[in-house]
Amino acid sequence: MGLIDRMASRLGYEKRAAEDPSWAALAPGIGAYAGLSARAAENLSTVLACTNAIATALAYVPALVYRRDADGNRVEMPAHPLNRLVRGGVSPQMTWPDFLEHFVASTLLTGNGIAVIERAGNGQLAGFRYIPWGMVTVSELSSGRLAYDVSDGRGNTRRYLEGGEVLHLRDRTDDGKIGRSRLSRAAETVNGVQTANQHAASFLANGASPSGVIEVPGTMKPEQRTALRESFQARHGGASKAGSTLILDGGMKWTAAQVSPEDAELLETRKFGVIELCRLFQVPPPIVQAYENNTFTNAAQAGLWFATFGLAPWARKIEAEFARSVFPSGGPYELELDLSGFLRGDPETRWAAHKIAIDTGVLDPDEVRQIEGWNPRPAEKRPAPGNEGGQADG
């Protein structure tokens, strides 16, 4: 055991076995599970589009801080330090939308998102520092808690932090501690889509035309075959040389292979790959501009479906992680990511819901105005009681 290992052991750190498959997910990216890194996975346009759709949408929605009073009622706390960070930025270099977008995207691609919680000298929340997952090493203490060894990426500074000092958003885990990327869980699907894209790129690079056969009378020596193949490829291979004139002599004949991209179902395979990747991220295809099987009806419902099944689970995970790490244990404060704004794209549904809320007494007109982002109506312009519709008394 080395010096560092002995010191870590005395501090209560436990070294995990290298062959533990769940701990292997600590490697940067998505490791050998999918055969490509998280950054390489984003070369697949659908992975990039799905990641951006979820991360950007969650960064866009209002983030509100509430306090529960003794009766269990929620009161918005605009002066809370977290609310100031949401409005003014989590650090001098990063706004709240930028931070949340990085945080969620890392979790979607690698299974884990990490941010250091910065506090002032009096313990008050002062900011967050996003840490790329590849710069973090996780150890398990003898108590069962996790500790995070954060590097600056240059090998100069290392900082050990315990669970309460970091935000750790994770995708579903195998061991209850470290998240595992859904890209790694569906490695064959991801690799299949990547292979189809590589085939399409190769097809286009070779002139978008099928290869063929050169028939030569008699028998050729190996070096003659090699010379013919290389000279033919140099003269006619590649998309930039498509349509060039082919000249053969010595009785040679060219026979094109009768295989088209439609026969190989290349286009259909790539379209299906888009749907497969959307399925991994719970993103409706219209959200990532895949309109092949789209209709007006399902397009109108895609946003609502996306908010309900694609965003709401992640919003709840983020809220729970803030409750665990940022706010005091059992304290009265809570974060809410307000997804109701996704109804703003459907004014008919939104205003019908407002009318029902007013008619049933759930909301009053001023509360509806507040939801819409408007100031309360001036007192002199408010309708008389029982005449909220705004019509003049008879």
Automatic annotation (TrEMBL):
It comes from the Bacteria. InterPro entries: Phage/GTA_portal, Portal_HK97. Gene3D superfamilies: 1.20.1270.210, 3.30.1120.70, 3.40.140.120. Residues 371-394 are annotated as: Disordered. Pfam families: Phage_portal. This is Phage portal protein. The lineage of its organism: Bacteria, Pseudomonadati, Pseudomonadota, Alphaproteobacteria, Hyphomicrobiales.
